[in-house]
Amino acid sequence: MRKIIYAYYLLVVLLFASTAILTAEATHIDGGSIILITDEDGENNSEQGRFTDDYFWGGEALNFSGIADDLYLMGKNIDFWGESTGSATILGENIEIQGLVAKNLHSAGNDVRISGHIQETAFIGAQKITISKEAVIDGTLLSGSSTLHIMGQLNNGLLAGAGEIIIDGPIEGNVEVHTGKLIITERGSISGNLVYGSNVEISEKEKDRVNGSIDYEIKEDFDEGGFTTFWIVACVLFFLSIVVSGLLLLLLPGVKAVFTSEREFASYGKTALWGLIPLFVYPVVLLITIPLFPLSIALGLATLPLMGLTTIMGLAFTGQLLFKAFKWENNSIYLQFLFAFLIYVIFALIPIVKVPVILAVSAAGAGLLISRLFKTDF
To answer: Quick one: 218 and 238 in the same domain?
Structure first.
């Protein structure tokens, strides 16, 4: 279970990174609690100010030595020397983090190098990750990469997946890794337990550098994947989040009231057909707004919540239709939702039909939202 946590957070980081379009015109927006700056002039911008608000920046290159609350830095080359009194999300091609992050760090890029102090958990996904000798990470390091080289100090363990992992510094706590090759140098040490899957077992000298127990599992096919457990748990978490969120959402009087009116069978079909329009238009709008940096970020970040909302509304809507089709007299929207959810899970696990089923449910939910937005019934 714990082995997949880092992959889950890496997925979230990469989804966030996919919305970071860095080709905007020069923009500077002060929204009171948010400072948003974008720039595409290609120069190496420097920021040394002190901000009491969250700070967003997007562009070609940035050298940040200022102070802000939550930081969101996105660009080709990011050099962070400053201080974040909250969390920091740093996305780019080449990233150097030499400053202080008081809470969690989320970072994704091609080459990420940590030389500063991360006081809570660090979530990092990159082609190459380097934790330099000067680095200190007080929380757990959760990472996914091609190569991971640790020379600094990790104070709360490591969860990682990489083609090659080199432990060349002290790690306090437990280590769980999935790797093609694990190396523990003379400078490296693990105070807790080591659980690792690898193509090659570590040597006896390397085992002596682990104070706790060692659990080894051979992974000859690491390069072909090995995150089956992740996908199973991710699916379980996804379905669980839908049912819990759905039941909570349906407790709201305004949402519950949407399903109180009687509908004809034709109304269900028309609603789903109308829902197909935003379902196909939204991705197009997202692409069109790529040059508009703030808007594209907002639309990108709204994608997952909107998908969840349309799925939940679509399931409740479908459950109502099924109960009407089978002439069941129970009008509990919660029971209808759970019944549709059960059918949804079964069909979603069948490769041939899962895509049209997921599309149909989302379309029904989107159509229902449109009908409520324009206060009309199709």
So the answer is: no
Report how far residue 53's alpha carbon sits from residue 172's, in angstroms, rounded to the nearest whole number.
34
For residue 326, give both structure tokens: 């089978």
pLDDT in tens, 304-314: 788 888 999 99
- Residue 378, domain member (yes or no): no
What domain count does the chain have? 2
* Phi, psi for 209 (deg, rounded to 5): -90, 5
Decide which of 224, 253, 274 is a domain's last residue.
224
- 158 close to 114: Cβ distance less than 8 angstroms: no
Tokens of 149: 């080289």
Q: How many angstroms separate the Cα of 326 from the Cα of each of 39, 270, 316?
A: 58, 20, 16
Could you tell me the pLDDT band of residue 25, with boundaries at 50, 70 and 90?
A: very low
d(CA 317, CA 259): 7
145 shares its domain with 247? no
